[in-house]
Specification:
Length: 83
């Protein structure tokens, strides 16, 4: 199938992608050397909210936001305003 694959690879791939063919084997000198299969489809339709109910958000989640912002800005603890 190697000469056919070289000449018709695009068509062969289209047949796999459309489901007309489930797989095809590429041979060299009459011996199989490769199998072309479709990649399994992965369901990604529900990504947002996938972890809903898996954990709880602490009440004090924003307690450190000023410190985190200061660190993102490259400031050190010496640069922190006095409490």
């Amino acid at each position: 199938m190697l000469p056919a694959a070289k000449t018709h690879l695009s068509k062969l791939i289209d047949q796999i992608a459309s489901g007309k063919e489930k797989e095809f084997v590429i041979s060299r000198n009459g011996k199989p050397v490769a199998r072309v299969l479709p990649i399994a489809k992965v369901e990604i339709s529900r990504r947002i909210g996938i972890a809903k109910g898996e954990f709880t958000i602490p009440e004090d989640i924003d307690q450190s936001k000023q410190e985190i912002a200061r660190l993102f800005n490259g400031e050190t603890s010496d640069d922190a305003p006095a409490a």
